Fold this protein.
Amino acid sequence: MLLRRIRNMSISVQVNELRSQMEKYGMSAYLLTVNENSTTHITNQTFSIVNSKLECHLSRSAERNVRLHPKVSILWPAYEADGYSMIVDGYCSRSQDLLIIEPISAVLHRPSQKKIDDGRHREGNCVDVNSEEV
């Protein structure tokens, strides 16, 4: 039985690697917050990274939502076909008109890809970035 290596579905990103990843993905990303009805609110924001924290403009919706639910996610779409999106989770605080996000986890992610070898389907798998296989 011949097995082909399948590209990884999820790859952990260390917080100290966010700056270099943002250089690849760009500064524009989607901020996902949760509102009072427990539904997701999504806005496109321009982010900067300062002292290992992400910063963006504080909108009225984001201000209201993070007061109730301070944990947010940020999504950078894949920048190439079949590429990885980057997702960062973090806790928010506010400084004047800025939203400050302290990252707690980050991952490069893409949908699993089924490959057919010897007539059977194989699913993608997850691997830690330290395995050096991207």
User: Anything to note?
Assistant: The domain at 10-115 is CATH 2.30.110.10 (Pnp Oxidase; Chain A). Residues 36 and 121 are 42 Å apart (CA to CA). The helical segments are 18-25, 60-68. The chain has one domain: 10-115.
